[in-house]
Amino acid sequence: MIPDDVREWIDRKAIWDINEFAADGQTLDCWAKLVYDEAIAVRDWLQSQPTAPEPDWSTASPDTQYHTIDASGLGIWWNTSHPPQPVVFLWVSDELDKEQQYFMIVDYVYDLPLGIDWRTTLRRRPEGVVES
Amino acid sequence: MNIPDEVRTAILNCTKLVRNRGFPGDLVDVIMLLDWLQSQPTAPEPDWLLHDDWFDCFVMAPYGNTAHYFHGEDVNWYGDSPDIDDVFSYGDAHDLGDMNTYGIDWRTTLRRRPEATA
Asked: Closest-CA residue in chain B for A39?
């Protein structure tokens, strides 16, 4: 998964820096052109990468603290005090026994884009989001 | 996130060029970005010599701690993804040890024995 700040770096900073350098009146020499071309190639690849689906916290119950998506795409809301852990191909919490786990609240079955590792889908409730 | 070889090469070239020439301006962020990209794990790749031709498919387990060689016709498929329970049941597991696979989508690690794809 590509963090947002990395996307921003490559999209705004890397390309912007090189463009600014050129705009300063300094012509891009062969070397700088090579860097530019490589940076563009990396930027284009990064921009083509999928973004992970994000849960709609406004639909979560007030006591929900976490959201996960397992390897099969099943989205789950968690009202545990500690984050669940990925095990084999789903998320589990040692705060819940098997039966409680079975009755966890399913959010939605996501079509997890190819390239998104389900182990990176843990989300914590953002500050200030309340149920609508 | 599986970074393809050609993108890794571009990242490496870009890093070398920036470092060697000391590109003017504030490129600290660019270096950080390139370093981060370069540090991303690579997906496990099969060593087909470990098994005979019967094992014609390879995939990393969803949890990323094991890789499995299996016969494609032994398992159910959901589109391009094998049923992982079938893979666990009928495949041959290899521990990936300390290999960092975090961020690698297991569905992108399916490989077929080259002879089988010809």
From this structure: B14
* pTM listed for this prediction: 0.79
Alpha carbon distance B80, B17 (integer Å): 39
B24 close contact with A: CB closer than 8 A: yes
Q: How many helices (H) and strands (E) does chain B have?
A: 4, 6
> Chain B within 8 Å of A22 (Cβ-Cβ)?
no
Are A118 and A62 within one domain?
A: yes
How many Å apart are CA A68 and CA A14, to the nearest integer? Answer: 32
CB contact at 8 A, A55 and A78: no
Q: What are the tens digits of pLDDT across the range B64-108?
A: 999 999 999 999 998 888 999 999 999 999 999 999 999 999 999
A90-92/B57-60 β-pairing: unpaired
Split at pLDDT 50, 70, 90, the class of B109 is very high
> How far from A107 is each of A43, A52, A76, A80, A126, CA to CA, in Å?
33, 15, 5, 15, 17
Q: Which residue has the tokens 């079975």?
A: A102
Instruction: Tell me if A78 sits within 8 A of A90, measured CB to CB.
Output: no
Q: Are residues A71 and A109 in the same domain?
A: yes
- ipTM of the complex, rounded to two decimals: 0.80
Instruction: Please list every residue in chain A whose beta carbon sits closer than 8 Å to the beta carbon of residue B30.
Output: 9, 13-14, 17, 39
Query: B53, exposed or middle or buried, with CB in 10 Å at 0-12, 13-18, 19+?
Result: exposed
Evaluate whether residue A132 is within a structural domain.
no
Q: Which structural domain, as residue segments, surrounds residue A23?
A: 4-48
- Do residues B111 and B57 make contact, with C-beta atoms less than 8 angstroms apart? yes
